[in-house]
Amino acid sequence: MIKKLLLVFVVAVVAGVSVMGYYLWKGPDLSSYGHLVEPAISTMQPQRMIVVEARGDPNDVASDAYELLYDLYYSVGGVDYWPVPAPRARWPILPDRPREEWVGIYGIPVPDTVAELPEYVHIPGMTVSLTTWDYGEVVELLYIGPYEDETPSVERLRSFAAERGYAFAGPHEEEYLKGPGMIFRGNPEEYVTILRYVVRPVTESSDGGTTTEPGGKNESEPLE
Q1: In b/e form, how buried is each residue of 30-62, taking b as 16+ CB within 10 angstroms?
Q2: 110-122: per-residue pLDDT in tens?
Q3: With 50 as the cut, is the pLDDT of residue 223 above it?
Q4: Averaged over 74-78, what is the pLDDT?
Q5: How far is the C-alpha of 128 from the C-alpha of 49, rounded, in Å?
Q6: Model pLDDT for residues 22-36, shown as the tens digit of each residue
Q7: φ, ψ dihedrals at 209, nearest 5°
Q8: Where are the domains of the chain?
Q9: Which of 67, 137, 147, 165 has the fewest CB atoms inside 10 Å of its own CB, making it the most exposed?
């Protein structure tokens, strides 16, 4: 029992230190993302993900969600201990709703060979799953700055996609190349995020309106 507790403690410490280092001190090598300085449409393959879903203000729940996420990540076999893959999050709730009602779907990529989750301590208000995020065609942009100032960049993505005959067809997604650490908030002006939406081609319907091709979700607007 003591050995098990020590192992859990060591895993938690390693996870916390790794995330902190990744987010706060190391930072990303932006030379790999030069093509996303301007909006771009590309194709992404499905990605196996460990996911923690939590409802509430991200300022209050995101830290606990990511701590659980990384504890799970380091407890499964066959993953890279370093470099740690950049975490992602999807936001299906519109931003005009109270932040206490927001739903954050926090995820981290894992190999396709991961078939089951390790044992974990359930945290009230959080749901854990092992799933696959589908993509296909996506529109992306590298954004540097505070999360609350993303809206103009999201509108750039929307306009870029529309000019090329596409529409958003999924929730707002962010991939966090550099952000707040587990302990220190860091400088929000230096946060580095990939903003991403799944897109579908827009076609004209028989009644003169527009719709996305099969597979699209145009019944609601994504979070911005």
Answers
A1: eeeeeebeebeeeeeeebbbbbbbbebebeebb
A2: 999 999 998 888 8
A3: no
A4: 89
A5: 11
A6: 444 455 677 788 899
A7: -85, -170
A8: 2-212
A9: 165
CA–chain centroid gap for 145, Å, is 16
Rounded to an integer, the average pLDDT of 39-68 is 95
Token output for 185: 């908030």
Specify whether the CB–CB gap between 191 and 146 falls below 8 A: yes
Furthest-apart CA pair in the chain: how many Å?
A: 69
HEC profile of the chain: CHHHHHHHHHHHHHHHHHHHHHHHHHCCCHHHHHHHCCCEEEEECCEEEEEEEEECCHHHHHHHHHHHHHHHHHHCCCCCCCCCCCCEEEECCCCCCCHHHCEEEEEEECCCCCCCCCCCCCCCCEEEEEEEECCEEEEEEEEECCHHHCHHHHHHHHHHHHHCCEEECCCEEEEEEECCCCCCCCCHHHCEEEEEEEEEEEEECCCCCEEECCCCCCCCCCCC
The answer to whether 141 and 187 are in contact (CB under 8 A) is: no
Residues 6+ apart with CB under 8 A from 28: 86, 177, 178, 192
Instruction: State whether the Cα torsion 84-20-61-92 is positive or negative.
Output: negative
Task: Kindly state the tokens that stand for 163.
Answer: 């000019």
19: buried, middle or exposed (CB in 10 Å: 19+, 13-18, 0-12)?
buried
Least confident of 29-33, 158-162, 209-213: 209-213
